[in-house]
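CHAIN AND CONFORMATION:

***
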Amino acid sequence: MQKLKTAVAIEPQRFCLVEVGGVESPAGSNKIKYNTWYYGREVSGDAYPWCVVFARRCCAQSGVSLPVKTASCTALMNAAKMAGMWVTSGYLPGDIVIFDWGGDKIPDHCGIIAQITATGYLCIEGNTAVGNDSNGGEVMERTRAAKTILGAVRFCMRWSCRSLCSGPWTAVSCRGMPLAI
């Protein structure tokens, strides 16, 4: 297994360490340490997709909480909307993006933006692979086109709020979004 190829900064003091190269074992089982962490026991099978679980673990490592405890892209999207943390443009590194492969407005997968590139967004994703975007069983860096993104969960951090968010800004909120640690 390849060790830490890329680190995604959600805030400068705490990095969301992303284990690029990690794979579920056996292949196709959804049996991976992120699911064990999330469910509190070892699990496997089709009922345990883990792209959101992986993103949740990355956030937890940085001391940031998602707006809901879920393994579902749809539930994460809906909770982010309710919490005022949903954005549909101007994506930034650290955003958790929800992908829509078919253009049907139904969430299919998620990842964390690591970098904005000339061709789209370099994302770190769990449970993906070349040839199987949404259930591939690997942690990978993937470049995604903007047209595949349905929206994103955005954390406005105290250290970055003034530079990343347009007002109104206070010590506890930015554009009405609560600030994380």
In short: Confidence is low (pLDDT under 50) at residues 1-15, 158-175, 177-181. The first helix runs from residue 33 to 39. The two ends are 32 Å apart (CA to CA).
